[in-house]
Amino acid sequence: MYGRLRPGGSDKGTEYELRRLATVPLLLLDNLGTEKLSEWTEEATYRLINECYNQCLPLIVTTNLPVRAPLDDHGRPTGPDLVGRLGERLASRLAEAATALILNGPDRRRHLRSAS
User: Fold this and answer.
1) 3-state DSSP assignment of residue 43
2) Rg for the chain, CA atoms, rounded
3) Cα 63 vs. chain centroid, distance in angstroms?
4) Domain coverage including residue 97
5) Between vectors from CA 85 to CA 82 and to CA 86, what angle results, nearest 5°?
6) Is 50 exposed, middle or buried (0-12, 13-18, 19+ CB in 10 A)?
7) Which residues sit opposite 29 in a β-bridge?
8) Per residue of the chain (116 residues), what is the pLDDT tens digit?
9) ∠ CA 62-26-109 to the nearest 5 degrees?
10) Are the beta carbons of 36 and 55 closer than 8 angstroms?
11) DSSP code of 107?
12) 82 CB contacts (<8 Å, ≥6 apart)?
């Protein structure tokens, strides 16, 4: 997705691709927060999610990260979280617009690797 949004990634341009993605009947962003961090990816992700929000379009987001990680005794996050990976602005937009469905359990990929 980010490849098509980058300048030169599409013959039709970044703005066209952003609007195209933001108007699909259902957009699925899988593993949000795992992409390489940069100002550009943060801004592109925010614009895409914000456009879906403004158009009242459905969006499904999966992530292994909490919006905010628990804090240690010194007030520092105990692990990675969406605020740290995507920025306060985007994490806030997601928290405002989303209904969280938390799925806990063992990591199936680890289990499958150890079984083979």
Assistant:
1) helix
2) 16
3) 7
4) 2-115
5) 75
6) middle
7) 61
8) 666 676 666 777 778 878 888 888 998 999 888 887 788 888 888 888 888 888 888 989 999 888 889 999 999 999 999 888 888 888 888 888 888 888 888 877 776 667 66
9) 30
10) no
11) -
12) 32, 33, 63, 65, 66, 67, 68, 90, 91, 94
Question: Residue type for 58, please?
Answer: P
Rounded Cα distance between 26 and 65, Å, is: 22
Give the type of residue at 84: G
Give the total number of structural domains in the chain.
1
Tokens (6 digits) for 64: 């292994």
Tokens of 38: 């940069």
- Per-residue b or e along 14-46, where b marks 16 or more CB atoms closer than 10 Å to that residue's CB: beebbeebbeeeebebeebbebeeeeebbebbb
In the block, residue with structure tokens 């300048």: 7
